[in-house]
Amino acid sequence: MAFFFKFAVASLALFFYHGFVVEAETVTYNWNISWTTANPDGMLERPVIGINGQWPLPVLNLTKGDRVVANVHNGLGNETTSIHWHGFFHHNTTFMDGPPHVVQCEIPPGSTFVYNFTLDQAGLYWYHSHSKGQYPDGLRQALIITDPENPYLGQYDEELVISLSDWYHDQMPDLLKGFISVTNPTGAEPVPKSALMNETQNFELPVQPGKTYLLRIVNVGAFASQYFWIEGHNMSVVEVDGVWTKPNETSMIYLTSAQRYSVLITMKNETTTNYPMVGSMDTDLFDKIPADLNWNVTGWLVYDKQGHRPQPHELEEFDPLDDVYLTPTDGVELYEQPDQVIVLNMSMNNLGDGANYAFFNDITYVSQKVPTLYSVMTTGDAASNPVIYGRDTNSYVLLKDQVIDIVLNNLDTGKHPFHLHGHNFQVLYRSPEEEGFFNATNTTSFPAVPMRRDTFWVKPTGNFLIRFKADNPGVWLFHCHLQFHFDAGLAMTFVEAPREMQQNLKIPQNHYDVCKASGEPVAGNAAGNTVDLFDLTGENRSVDPLPAGFTAKGVVALVFSCIAAFVGCAAVAWYGAAPLGVAPVVPSPQ
Ligand SMILES: *[C@@H]1O[C@H](CO)[C@@H](O)[C@H](O)[C@H]1NC(C)=O
Ligand SMILES: *[C@@H]1O[C@H](CO)[C@@H](O)[C@H](O)[C@H]1NC(C)=O
Ligand SMILES: *[C@@H]1O[C@H](CO)[C@@H](O)[C@H](O)[C@H]1NC(C)=O
Ligand SMILES: *[C@@H]1O[C@H](CO)[C@@H](O)[C@H](O)[C@H]1NC(C)=O
Ligand SMILES: *[C@@H]1O[C@H](CO)[C@@H](O)[C@H](O)[C@H]1NC(C)=O
Ligand SMILES: *[C@@H]1O[C@H](CO)[C@@H](O)[C@H](O)[C@H]1NC(C)=O
Ligand SMILES: *[C@@H]1O[C@H](CO)[C@@H](O)[C@H](O)[C@H]1NC(C)=O
Ligand SMILES: *[C@@H]1O[C@H](CO)[C@@H](O)[C@H](O)[C@H]1NC(C)=O
Ligand SMILES: *[C@@H]1O[C@H](CO)[C@@H](O)[C@H](O)[C@H]1NC(C)=O
Ligand SMILES: *[C@@H]1O[C@H](CO)[C@@H](O)[C@H](O)[C@H]1NC(C)=O
Ligand SMILES: *[C@@H]1O[C@H](CO)[C@@H](O)[C@H](O)[C@H]1NC(C)=O
Ligand SMILES: *[C@@H]1O[C@H](CO)[C@@H](O)[C@H](O)[C@H]1NC(C)=O
Ligand SMILES: [Cu+2]
């Protein structure tokens, strides 16, 4: 491929896998992140973020053991950027994980950031921007890490990868402005304009009769989950989020934003017709469905290029797989009893500016002046006190090798996919809808070999319980992967093994150079105080709560009645009615 360079450098290391010697390569990418244009749904040519002038972005195909060196140049001119390697462990290299203000500084226009790390895992992953809600403007693509120990090797003929996603015509900075706004007090998310399959709407997959394919599917969308099915063909699920599983046959899978599945599909022997392959956005997520919205994207398995392309059947004729029952092939058993149980009550509500935000335990995430990792590295013993990272990073300090339970109670009536950086977690329990709070006394047993993944969704007003081992020193976000909710503050921070980080991490000079270019401080507590680490004066904080006497419902009613009266008066009425003179200028939450 002409748009990136791959150098096979003299083998750096030899890895032994069950007696096979595998040579590890250094794979170097030179990327210029810059604007280009595309019209993937055939309805609107719009600016998109490409790499070296190309969009869709390249699918990366790496091998376990490889070293990746990605020289990421920000050629956007008018936005900062960053790359997150979704699902990667980054052992001893948490500073390569990507989220700005967490483990690095924003890459400002004109700067080049070097991501440099080795791959000690395999499976289907993806890479995307972690700056603001940027990736839905195009900076997202699948990434495969080939496994020398692939348990399904020999059981298929060819590997294929496709993405699913939602697509907007407006750009994310504008969508976010409208979403987190007094004119949107209920927090209704922007509804996509269309759905895409492999970044297009006319996707055709030529197949050969009798062959078996390993089809790898990732949802790279901003917001909408998708039902996926191939008519006339069952799928045997063999991988979730980078974890090989025992085969489980199904006619349909359900992928939230950021989730991945790999499936084995065997082709028919006759080539008399072609078969629809459908992605259908979960309309439960949309507050209202615009009359002109086609929430499906249909592609075809093409046995016969000249042949008929039939229309798909109804969604209700298929039944999605319940991922909770999958079993990893590696047999990793349920971790022992937890050392810490972290209960997160998530809710969505209005703050004093009348806009809608999202909360874990009443805290809406706000990023800080000093990236959290740099605070860890420069505060000595104080690093084990979560206070220094700033109230609104919602930081929890974990000790090395602790077993951690996260209980997530969804007080909201929507579905939310949660992603933990730097780990995959065991899934112990997901409640049905409307169960309310998790009740430990009710749950008698957990799976002996639980499914593990890195992104898992909670049902409306339900709960889930997940467990992971704090065996990976680093600063790791846990957040809702719906970009609108992430930007509305639905995130918190794990500061995992701060002492070990201080002892073992070697952050490259290049990262500090980028901070210098972006003007971000790199030492001290969240507020950049290097003298008194417990003086957080100047830390970034969320908007104040609603003034006393105002309930969120009251604000909503006020704004709604005003919108009903005549469009456009909402903001005026709110500020006019606010008794405490709420400042109309609100700091950005991310
Ligand atoms: C990156 O791409 C932009 C837009 O095409 C171009 O203006 C710029 O010169 C490129 N920068 C580098 C370092 O290649
Ligand atoms: C940056 O420039 C691109 C390309 O001209 C444009 O589409 C985009 O809206 C700009 N972004 C911002 C935040 O102004
Ligand atoms: C990380 O670094 C520590 C200290 O050098 C070392 O003991 C450990 O094996 C490393 N972990 C991995 C996964 O390489
Ligand atoms: C990548 O990291 C390795 C290990 O720290 C180092 O030896 C190498 O020089 C780095 N490569 C680049 C291009 O920075
Ligand atoms: C990725 O590379 C491996 C060889 O390293 C190859 O077998 C496989 O087909 C490739 N996958 C894709 C989707 O190109
Ligand atoms: C999907 O698109 C990517 C990027 O354009 C491409 O590399 C890949 O081969 C496509 N998948 C299939 C099955 O054609
Ligand atoms: C798919 O699996 C279901 C349930 O096992 C079965 O009834 C159906 O016949 C299978 N369909 C195909 C096309 O194999
Ligand atoms: C296709 O033909 C082969 C060889 O005759 C047979 O083993 C296989 O079961 C057939 N596949 C299907 C889906 O009928
Ligand atoms: C989307 O596809 C489903 C399943 O075929 C169908 O029930 C629904 O009517 C389709 N929606 C639109 C807008 O075409
Ligand atoms: C397959 O999934 C079903 C539920 O969807 C579950 O009952 C069954 O135990 C699973 N089988 C395996 C082998 O994981
Ligand atoms: C727990 O069990 C009690 C009694 O069986 C039941 O009333 C309650 O709804 C259950 N709560 C949960 C959270 O499952
Ligand atoms: C949890 O369920 C038990 C019954 O299984 C019940 O006695 C207890 O009150 C419940 N606790 C809460 C907090 O709902
Ligand atoms: Cu969410």
Question: How many domains make up the coordinates?
Answer: 3
CATH class label of the largest domain: Mainly Beta
CATH architecture of the largest domain: Sandwich
Q: From the alpha carbons, calculate the radius of gyration and give it in angstroms.
A: 24 Å
Contiguous helical run count = 7
Describe the main β-sheet briefly: 6 strands, mixed
Strand content: 25-35%
What compounds sit in this structure?
Answer: 2-acetamido-2-deoxy-beta-D-glucopyranose, copper (II) ion
User: Pairing-aware structural class of the strands and helices?
Assistant: mainly beta
Biggest sheet, spatial arrangement of strands: 12-11-14-19-16-17
Q: What is the CATH superfamily of the largest domain?
A: Cupredoxins -  blue copper proteins
Identify low-pLDDT runs. 1-21, 559-590
Q: What is the average per-residue confidence, as pLDDT, rounded to a whole number?
A: 91
Which geometry do the CA atoms define? Answer: globular
Domain Plastocyanin-like: 33-149, 158-305, 366-499
Organism: Phyllosticta capitalensis
Keywords: Copper, Membrane, Metal-binding, Oxidoreductase, Signal, Transmembrane, Transmembrane helix
Family: Belongs to the multicopper oxidase family.
